[in-house]
Write a structure and sequence with these properties.
single chain, mainly alpha, 2 helices, 2 strands, 62% helix, 11% strand
Length: 87
Amino acid sequence: MENPKGYNLRCTLTFGDIYGQVLVWMVVIFVSLAAGLALMGSSKPIFALVGVGVILVLSLPFLLFAFTTTLLNHIALEPAPATERVA
């Protein structure tokens, strides 16, 4: 019977891989806050709070999906060298 091969789990994710995603989401947050401040001066300021909330709630799943898929794309299974294999 042959021993199973060992594998090393390696994450190759760097900050540069998610830097663009962080910047885009920060822009979304600042634009929604700017829109909220602009609407705050109107006769119905509740629209400002609802608008900011809707933008943040709708953008959060896309951000989490982007982070998760980026992370999963940078996980590598590499065969372990013969010296590290467990018998």
